[in-house]
Every structure is written in C-alpha cells, then in structure tokens.
Amino acid sequence: MAKKKFNPEDVIGKPYARGLLPYGGGVTRGKISFAVSEEEHLEKMKRLRLIRP
User: Fold this and answer.
1) Could you report the per-residue pLDDT of 19-33, keeping only the tens digit for each?
2) I need a labelling partner for 10 at 20 to 30 A (CA). Which of 4, 22, 41, 44 fits?
3) In DSSP terms, which residues pair with 28 in a beta bridge?
4) Do the beta carbons of residue 7 and residue 39 sit within 8 Å?
5) Longest dimension (CA), the chain
C-alpha cells in the first residue's frame, strides 16, 4: 500500500495532535494555523546546507 502524501491544506484548522505536522508548522490556541509541505521543507534544508561550512 502506498503511503499518502502529506497535504498541508488538509490539516489547517484541525486540533493539533502529535504527528500531524511532519515537516513543521504552527499552532495557535490548540489548532493548526499553518503547515509546511515536504517540498518547502526540502528546499529550506537545501539552503541551510549551503551556508554550513
């Protein structure tokens, strides 16, 4: 069975539970206010690796 790809729009507004934000995001008053997609996460890590000596 193929693993379902994470879609940030699916979790925004839902109550936060551990594991709902695999790539990061933000929680306000117990609800997810924003989520980071896998593509955004990989791009950020790529930029961070460039500045690391």
Assistant:
1) 899 999 999 999 999
2) 44
3) 31
4) no
5) 40
| φ, ψ at 19 (rounded to 5°) | 95, -5
Q: Is the dihedral of CA 43, 47, 50, 53 positive or negative?
A: negative
Calpha distance 22→37 (Å, rounded): 9
Please tell me the pTM assigned to this model: 0.75
Output phi, psi for 11, to 5 deg: -105, -15
pLDDT of residue 5: 85
Which stretches of the chain are assigned E, i.e. beta strand?
25-28, 31-35
Give the separation between CA 42 and CA 2, rounded to whole angstroms. Answer: 21
Report the C-alpha gap between 10 and 48 in whole angstroms. Answer: 27
Give the span between the Cα atoms of 51 and 53, in whole angstroms: 6
